[in-house]
Structures are given as C-alpha cells and as structure tokens.
Write a structure and sequence with these properties.
mainly alpha, 3 domains, 26 helices, about 70% helix, globular
Length: about 500
Amino acid sequence: MAGEITNLDRGVSRKQYLQEFIDVKNEIFSEANLNKMESKLGTRWRENITDMFDRMETGRTRSLKLDRGSSAMMNYLNGGIGTIMNFNTRSAALQTISTLNFLNMRENNPLSAARAMANIPQFAKDFKFIMNSDMLKQRRDGLAINVTEAEIASAAASSPNMIQGIISKVLKVGYTPTKLADSFAISFGGATFYRNRIKMYEKQGMETKAAEKQAFLDFQVLAERTQQSSRADLLSKQQTSLIGRIILPFANTPMQMNRAGMKDILDLAKGRTKGLRNQSEAVGRITYYMGAQVALFAGLQSALFAMLFNDEDVTNEKIASTKTYTLQSTTDSMLRGFGVQGALISSFKNATLEFFKQNAKPAFKADYSEVGEDLLNISPPIGSKYGMLDLAGDKLKWNRNVPFKFELGNPKLEASLMTIQAVTNAPVYSPYQNITNLQHALSDKYETWQRALMGAGWTPYNVGIELPKNKTKSLKKKKFEDINVHDF
C-alpha cells in the first residue's frame, strides 16, 4: 500500500497539483525560447535545465531508464551507503552543527538569535511549530535528505523482492538518528530565524499573519538550500546520472554549498552585489560554506577538537596524524563539492600520496593495496565495501589461531560480520560496532571526554585510545571507520 501511494503521488496527483507550474514553465520555456537561450547559454545549459524540469514534474531523481540489471546494481550500491549510515550516531551528532546555517548578519545575527532563544516560551513554541510542520514531517517520513536516502525509502515502500524489501526497511529504520538530528537542527536553528524574520516584516509594516506566512516561506527556502536535500531543483544533472550515483554519494551538501558559493563569487566578480553590506555578506557566505563549515565538520569528525583540549591524554603522534587527516578530509570534501571531476582529482591525490608513503617503507612493510583502496574510494559505496573486506581479511590472516567465539572483540566474529555486511548489505556489523563503542564508553579506564565521545558514536581509535593489538593494521582500521567523512 505504501508503494502504491508513493507511485500515485509521483503520478496523477503530482501532475494535478503542479499543473499551474507546468503551464507557466511551458509558456516561458517554449521550444522557441529554449532555442534562443541555448544560443546564449550553451547546449549543456539546455540539457541541464530540461533535465531539472523533468525531475520537478515527475518527482523522480532516477531519471535514467535503466535495465533490470543496472537498477539492481544501483539498489545494491544504495544499500551499501545505507549500511554506512545505519544507526550512525556520530553522523547524527555532527548533523546538529547545521543550526549555524540560519544565522546571518542582519535580523538573525548571533546577538538577535541569542535574545530570541532567551525568550524560552516563544522559542519553545516556534521550535515545536517547525518540528511538527508538514515540511519536516515529509522530510522525516520520506527521508528527503539525500538522493540515496530517498531511494532507500522508496525501495522499502515498493520493492517487489521480499529480501531486498526487508533489508531496505531495516536500512530506512537505521536512518532514525540522522533524520531526527536533521529535524532538530532545522527546528532549533530555524526557530530564531523564523521569529526574528517575523519581527523584521512587522517593522516594515506587514500584518502579523502575512509576516508569519512570508517568514516561514523564507525559512523553507533557506533550510532547503543549506541542508541536505533530494528536492528536484536542488540536484545537479551529475548527481542524478549513473556515474554520479556511483561517485557522488555523501557529496550532496558540499555540491549545494559550492554552487551557492560560486554564485556569490560570480555576483561579486560581475558587480551584481551592490553596497558594502551586501558584499560583506556574500564574502561571509563564501568563507563559511566553502571553507569554515567543511573544516569545522572535519575537525569534529576526527575528534581533533577534543584532542587539542586534552592533549595530555593523547600522544603527539596521534594528534599530528589527526591534524593531517582533518586537512585531507577538508580538501577532499571541497573537491567532491565540484562534482565528478573533483572526486577524480581527490582520489588521484590520495592514491599518489599513499604510493609515496608506502614506497618510503622497507620492502617487507610496504602495502601497495592501500593505493588501490584510495583509487576505489572514488566511489564511497565500492570503497567502503573493499575496505571492509580488506580489513576482515587482515583479521583472519593475523588471528588464525584465535578460536571463533560469540563475544565482543573476537577477531573472527568481527571478520564474519564485516564480510556479511559488505557482501549482502545486511547491517550486522554496524550494531556490533555501536555496542563495542558503548562498552568502552561505560568503562572507567578512560577519561570523561573520551567516554562521552564514544557514547556518541566516536570509536576508541578516534579518541586516541590504543586498544590491545590483534595484529590488524591500524591504518586500514582508521580508513574503514572514517569512511563516512563526507556525510553532513
């Protein structure tokens, strides 16, 4: 029934409710006008705008007509992303930094936002209003956060294959922490924006009801453009293409931010931003969305911020490696924000650096498979599967004499769960990893900050804890555990 309703929404009812938009679009972008626009803006522009209009009319992000085998492959790769995000509490925690996206240097500057937040009864009312709005209900129910998540939700509702349908349903449930954190961030950050924007319109002479309606519309536009979104007009042709689906998972937000930043850069370069205030705001947006936000996320992802405040509990070598990793992650995220070409550059860069790193080691210690892994990481779902199978193989290789037991920390149990998850997309290793993190979080052997972060989803390795070695390469462990660096 859910599948039938989903398809009905994308078919008859969608066209009915969008008929006015379709009529206006057909009149403005007639064949004659499109030909004139193409002569000025180029063939690629016409291809992109036509593709976008098709997605807006149909509501389908998978605009390609794929054969059965290709569709099965895409569903399989989507499932690989789903296993990475399955009850990913660290990703959910990091999702909350997007509350800062609603601040500006006008009516909702940090001081005004703090004042609005201090009015607790009104702030709570606005927070509840946004949290329970149709916009956020639809966003949570349909996982309208990202292209991959939206398709997993669709597969869970309408898959004819029972096994695939069950796995898709499990993966959809696994997004619960992320979608709740997404709604919380939008509601928490949006509440002050909404209230201060209402006050701004009322000062301009607008009636309260009209001010509330316009303020919420402004909030919706800002939320969709600064959060992850599967909305048809906020996706690029690359993201919905076959190659984009393979290469660009986890690049949704970086691509949206880069497109917005490039628009501001072009506006400044062409003199379209009038006045010092508008120019300074454009520079601020470029600095934040194309640099500061990415660096902030990478620093939080790697727990670098906690290590710097608690450097006595972490070795200098670990802090240095984490700084390097944070810089690499920031660079990679920015490159992937430029699409397939940027992802290719990022992968080649990492593979080259890894080659020189391995080449500097003694012959018997060099592991050039790491170079291949960096090249495969051009596709996050493929790279994560290879990394998981590679790590599982190492665990078996170096622990042949360890008996198999159903207990936490048993290397053969870990290898088995990793292999099952990598091959089938059944999320069996993710909960094991979460339980392991909680086990360490509840231990009194570690510092309070380490226990708090492990309870929130960071692994012992992330917070500088060196666990007893079972002869598995820590580098591969690090690479696998941080495979979801771009998901924000």
